[in-house]
Amino acid sequence: MIKITKVILPIFMFAVITHGVFAQAVSVVKSDTALSAGDSFVVELRLNTDGQKINAAEGILKTSDNLSIEGTRYGDSILSLWPATPRVSDKKKVLSFTGGVPGGYSGSNGLLLSFLVRANAAGDSFVSINNISLFLHDGAGTSLEGTKKNSLYFSVSEKKAGEPIKEASLSLGEDTLGPEMAKTIVSKDESVFEGNYFVAFSAADKHSGVDYFDVIEEPFLIKYLTYFNKETKQAKSPVLLVYQYWPSKVTVSVYDQANNKSQASVRKPHDVYVLATLLFSVLLLFSVVILKKGKYK
After folding, report:
1. pLDDT tens digits for 138-176?
2. H or E element: which one contains 9?
3. Edge-to-edge strand order for the sheet containing 185-189?
4. Distance between CA 234 and CA 213 in Å, rounded?
5. Do 184 and 227 reside in the same domain of the chain?
6. Do residues 138 and 214 both lie within one domain?
7. Distances (CA, A) of 41 to 49, 154, 156
8. How many domains are there within the chain?
9. Per-residue pLDDT tens for 184-228?
10. CA–CA separation, 124 vs 9, rounded Å?
11. Strands 152-156 and 123-136, bridge-based pairing
């Protein structure tokens, strides 16, 4: 009995320790170990799901006062859908994001995003994870509790005389390809815009990353008969349509951070019937006019 206990106890302790070590975690990792004032460096936010499968993540990161966030890259992220693309605010000290991955992700070193940081002055420095939320790929979007936040703490030294400034880059090479448009649909649902028609869209870009979308709605015939403003506006999915009961073509354009463009055009499901009705009405009216002219000759 004593021998069995001696064997089981180490195994139990190993299981407890390894579970603590390999629990799901989000970590901040930097590219350069030795930094001095003026240098820039790349920081990565990486995810270990510890065997869990997640389909969404959102977070807020913050830097110390002597650092500034100069740019972001998320085209090579495990996340491909971005309800809120990485955004820098608060005098370049705060970075926030919300992203998703269709089909879910499970892994030990998944890249959430990368960003470029500059050390503006010497001193104790940090890039901290103020908030991180992970959501399970379980059909219910259950929040994954107990995620460890591994923030980054380091020191920036004074720049020595004649020492060159290190310039890092987020570039993955020249980006000449447009984003990949996912399914773009026009639909209506009682839970969205009070049951009115809307357009929903998404896209992915595995190089520089999706930057923004714009939407334009062109009404059938009206655009030829009256002044029609074709100015597009940046938009987030879903977008309520202006022409609910009139046929229109909805064009969604997506741009990546290298300003490459892709687009897709869709129509409301009932537009074909409305167009057919309009055409039939015009033909009927034309026939009546012809008959009346023939009658009075």
Report:
1. 999 899 999 999 999 999 999 999 999 999 988 777 778
2. helix 2-21
3. 185-189, 192-200, 239-240
4. 6
5. yes
6. no
7. 26, 13, 12
8. 2
9. 999 989 999 999 999 999 888 877 788 889 999 988 877 666 666
10. 42
11. antiparallel
